[in-house]
Every structure is written in structure tokens, then in C-alpha cells.
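U., I forgot to send this yesterday:
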Amino acid sequence: MSKSEYTEESLAEMREDAFVNIKEACMRLQERSKCGNDVVIKMLGEVSQFYVTQEKKNKNLA
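Result:
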């Protein structure tokens, strides 16, 4: 489904769910590893870059 097929309300709900899940994962990472916010921020940047790269690859294949 494309983004235009969702209502703004459903998109907002999905963003909130994603935020909560990511926040919980980051908190577990910090609890287990005792790492600081800088490590979590770096990890989130790397995850974000992964998705940017995937999107670029997908566009190049189309």
C-alpha cells in the first residue's frame, strides 16, 4: 500500500506505535549494555541509513 492509501489518523497511529516500539528497544539496549545515549543515537542513525539505502536500491530497480 502506498502512503496515500492511509488516513492521517491511521498514519499517526502507526507513527506512535513505531515510536513506542523503538523507544522500548533503545531502553532495553541501554539496560543490557549500559551504553549511553550517544551509542543509541548512532545506532538509530545506522538503522535510518539502512532504510534510506534500501529505498534508493528499490528505486534504481524500478
